[in-house]
Amino acid sequence: MTRNGARIAGGSLVPILLLTSALSAGAAENPYEIGRWMWQGREVVGIRVGPGRPPDVLPPDAPLPRGDRPSAVKTLSNVPAWDWCYGCSPTAAAMIVGYYDNLIFPNMYTGPENGGVCPMDNATAWAAGESPLSFTHNGLDGRGSRGAVDDYWIAFNNTGSDPYLTNGWTEHTWADCTGDYMGTGQSKFGNADGSTTFFNYTNGDPLYDYTGGEPSRKDGCHGLKQFVESRGYSVPSTKAFSQLIYPNSVYTSITRGFTFDNFKSEIDAGRPVMIQLQGHSMVGFGYDDAGQVVYVRDTWDHAAHTMTWGGSYAGMKQYAVTCLQLNLNRAPTKPVIDVTPDFPRDNQDLSVAVTTASTDPEGATVSYRYRWYRGGALQPLLDNLTTVPAAATSQGDVWKCVVTPNDGTDDGPSAEDSVTVQDPALAWVGTTDYTSDGVDPQSGNPDATSFTFEVKFTDPSGAAPKSKRLVVDRRVGTKWLSYKNLGMTQVSGSVATGAVYSCATTLANEVLRYQFRFQASDGTPVTGAPAAWTQGPELNGPPKLYWTGTAGYATDGVSPDSGSASTQFRFRVLYLDSEGEAPTKCVLQLRRNGVLQSPKTMTAWAGGGYRLGKTFEKLLTFASGGTLEYRFEFADADGAATGTPTAWQSGPGLGDGGTALLSGLTAGPTPVGAQVTFRLSGAAQVSATVLNLAGRPIRALCADRPSDAGQGTLLWNARSDAGLRVPSGAYLVRLTARSATGAQSTALATVHLP
């Protein structure tokens, strides 16, 4: 088929692609239509393009515009100029992506030619009619397996089944060329060798990323988008479309479409456009406002050519365009950020700073967006804040800040930095014998066994503790009193990941508890389970007895202090054992007028424990008159209990008319010795003597001193009858009161001199 003496490229396809009477009457406008369908409420037309082989007489070359032209002219540089490579549409598409490869999309072509950068001339790089970016070919560009040419090509405009189908081999995997994804020459899509199908809305609207014909029909525009995405680049659906042009010499009835101004906008944005003619595809890469001239690569040679927008080229009318709108803005670089402090505590604010700023390739001003995540969850209230207040953080929180640069158009790669809010902490060492406490062994002999205490201290900052102490308390009655305070030494590990501190000591026969008291480098107390009181090891010694310390039993073991024959006296004592063992013996011993009475078994109160103190009680009544002494006698498997309540105590007083009644005898240390207090129910003569524990007299405090009823007081200066200072220790005070009738009361009290 000829026109004006030149054979029109692709004209030989007309007999193959003439529509049947079943197609829309609109098909007469374009004999390359293959059908019309409804898609999303609008009519879509399918138009087969190509093969588009060069005509016998090529259009003349057009020189590129000079910079001194008075009209508005613009052309894009670095647009490859290739001859026809197994189809005009994949060749045009390959030149477009080759252009992008030379800009900022280097993955479009990754072959060995030209250092991996897409060549400008296919004939020089490979051979005339060959381009691995258009149609891959076994043996071309280092390929060692079948490609698109081998699987799909038979001969120009051949409509037979593809070679891979007729020969029964496996089709190659789509990968490196535009023809794969555009469906060019693939019989399964109804495309003759060299031809590609494009779809457009018939009303002139842009048709974005059309997939409505699949799997039997493949849209070349959608395929071009897929190729770009296969190279690792994102293409939004609205950035790949085909559209009828306006005005349109083929589809003359439309009232809108892609205009010359739209084309100029694409070129001004740095984006070449695929020009669709009846039976042929080209690349539009420039314009001249004078006469609405379009500069094109026609896929037939390696030169630039021109055509008038909406006119004809080589006798083929322009009717549509296909646009791939890649973003040519280069995003700013990734910044470097730092969240501080590196090892925050829960009383510290968190701050982020950009330590190395992003740079924008085009020199645009870069701004930053700040987003904070707590435990992986975005904290919207902190968006674009550079500080997180301490009140928002908690121990153990993992905080991450993500900083994203933006140049006013695009986001650049984000930077992130994370910190963990972690105060310096104490923990059990976790090794054998120290899994759930801090001492080994768990039991031993008083003042003999060496107990080793260990604890783990961690400060992520690596700062050594300011203070590291082991504190041990002993149980005295119902109170805890300080016993030992020992320094500790680091024996293993590192402070940043966990250092073990240790000390060893012997322990007395006491009920014990311990805790580790550490201070961080800034002096703040360190928390953790070992910082709380923990039950101490068991000592294999006899139990101890104490006054219960409750009302009426603060300094003795009986209440009331005096009474008559009808009075019920309650004797109480507190029993403690380091091993928590129950007593094997628990009796109250009594002496009436110096004569030992039968022992009285005592009963334990419900509740409490033997380790921290269990109260035992006995209720008794006595006949009036005379004197009464008592002591508590307890024992377990380790021996007899010790403590003040095991010594003889005076009382309670038993009244008998005119008999002097002595009660409430106590003796306590003073800075210079001791003070003795007592109570008389009537006038009497009082004698008092200090004895050692063997019962030998040390000092006579008074002899037959007249005293009135009521409370009396005696002082001892801690000296013997010879005037010498007595040693520290325990002493007995014996006091005797004799009434005018001859009745006599005697009582004993113990005093400890420091």
Compile the SSE list and pairings.
Blueprint: E1 2-3, E2 6-7, H1 14-17, E3 33-39, E4 42-49, E5 73-75, H2 88-101, H3 122-125, H4 148-152, H5 163-167, H6 178-182, E6 196-201, E7 207-208, H7 220-230, E8 240-244, H8 260-268, E9 273-277, E10 280-288, E11 293-297, E12 305-308, E13 312-313, E14 316-324, E15 336-340, E16 350-356, E17 367-374, E18 377-378, E19 387-388, E20 398-406, E21 415-420, E22 425-427, E23 439-440, E24 443-444, E25 451-458, E26 467-476, E27 479-487, E28 489-494, E29 498-505, E30 512-519, E31 534-535, E32 538-539, E33 544-546, E34 558-559, E35 562-563, E36 569-576, E37 585-592, E38 595-596, E39 600-601, E40 603-604, E41 614-620, E42 628-636, E43 639-640, E44 649-650, E45 653-654, E46 662-670, E47 673-680, E48 684-691, E49 697-707, E50 710-716, E51 729-738, E52 744-753
Parallel strand pairs: 24-32, 35-45
Antiparallel strand pairs: 1-2, 3-4, 4-6, 5-10, 7-8, 8-14, 9-10, 9-14, 10-11, 11-12, 13-14, 15-16, 16-19, 17-18, 17-20, 20-21, 22-25, 23-25, 25-29, 26-27, 26-30, 28-29, 30-31, 33-36, 34-36, 36-41, 37-38, 37-39, 37-42, 40-41, 42-43, 42-44, 46-47, 47-50, 48-49, 48-51, 51-52
Query: How much strand content do the residues show?
Result: 35-45%
Mean pLDDT: 91
Uncertain stretches of 5 or more adjacent residues: 1-27
Q: Output the structural class.
A: mainly beta
**Helical region count?**
8
Choose one word for the global shape. rod-shaped
Oligomer: single chain
Major β-sheet profile: 9 strands, antiparallel
Distance between the termini: 130 Å
How large, in whole angstroms, is the Cα Rg?
A: 53 Å
Helix proportion: under 10%
Beta strands, count: 52
List the domain count as a whole number: 5
